[in-house]
Design goal:
CATH topology: TIM Barrel
Distance between the termini: 30 Å
Largest sheet: 7 strands, mixed
Bound molecules: iron/sulfur cluster
CATH architecture: Alpha-Beta Barrel
Radius of gyration: 16 Å
CATH class: Alpha Beta
Number of strands: 9
Number of domains: 1
Strand content: 15-25%
Strand order of the largest sheet: 1-2-5-6-7-8-9
């Protein structure tokens, strides 16, 4: 368990940050993956002008206070330099409260490994409080995926594909993403795979939050 920052430093942490009319939520610094292209593995926690370094796990109340009025934003997105579903209870509680407070659209950006990590299908829980999910497909095959994301679990790639299917089955608006330009990543092949899984596809630009 990480050491909690003193109160003043907790208040200085960036738990919510605004980009292109959306509000992004930074609720954890832990990840299931160790992506070679991730800025935090180069010691860089600054994303598009925001310092996303966390050394503590914020509470539901702290995240909600950082949001303020959710109705001001076109979309609220769980997306920081950590995997939001590792804090599933906080994610669900924050999203549910944001819904009650008038959030227009809530999206989760995820590695798609929540079912693997939690040992059960959590997509129904997610569908109850979210509008859409964007899942890092990353690559068209397990070998390329493993090379770039360096998962702690060997069964990550098939688990992520199964998560995509399950999330779609729950009626969520699901988009698979891959970063255009990463070595060995075949964007048209990723797009075809997404199509076979029945989900949308979006090619991403490295280091661009979206
Ligand atoms: S899942 Fe995202 S935050 Fe985590 S290591 Fe990969 S790129 Fe970085």
């Amino acid at each position: 368990m990480a050491q909690r920052k003193p109160r003043q430093q907790r208040e200085e942490a960036t738990l919510a940050y605004e980009l292109h009319g959306n509000l992004y939520l930074n609720i954890t610094y832990h990840c299931t993956l160790r992506c070679g292209f991730c800025p935090k593995y180069q010691g860089v926690w600054n994303v598009q002008g925001y310092d996303l370094l966390l050394t503590f796990e914020p509470t539901t109340e702290e995240v909600l206070a950082a949001v303020g009025d959710p109705a001001r934003y076109r979309e609220i997105v769980f997306c920081g330099l950590g995997e939001p579903t590792l804090r599933l209870d906080t994610l669900l509680a924050v999203s549910s409260a944001l819904r009650e407070r008038g959030a227009r659209h809530i999206r989760l950006n995820t590695d798609g490994l929540a079912n693997l990590v939690h040992g059960r299908d959590v997509t129904a829980d997610l569908a109850a409080v979210l509008d859409s999910v964007s899942v890092s497909l990353t690559a068209q095959d397990a070998a390329t995926y493993n090379r770039h994301t360096r998962p702690k679990r060997t069964d990550a790639y098939p688990a992520m594909l199964e998560f995509l299917r399950a999330a779609r089955g729950q009626g969520l608006d699901v988009t698979a993403t891959a970063i255009d330009g990463l070595e060995g990543v075949d964007i048209p092949a990723c797009e075809r795979l997404a199509e076979r899984l029945g989900v949308r596809f979006r090619g991403r630009v490295l280091d661009a939050v979206g």
